[in-house]
Predict the 3D structure of the following.
Amino acid sequence: MFSTNQLYFAVLFVITFVVVLIWTYRKDLKLHRIHYKNAYVVALAALAVIALFTIITFSMH
């Protein structure tokens, strides 16, 4: 299915991608705390709306 070199490349790519992602997130952590202070409220509201629509949809059938 995949050659050995392709698997090595995939593993190296995933490791590098995750490391760069973590490094970038840690670098921007101060800005995230300032600009996304109440992001959990928005996430909870979105989940509540989805749950409400699901309940309404299933109760109508």
Q: What stands out?
A: The helical segments are 4-27, 29-35, 39-60. The two ends are 46 Å apart (CA to CA). DSSP finds three helices and no strands in the chain. Residues 21 and 38 are 22 Å apart (CA to CA).
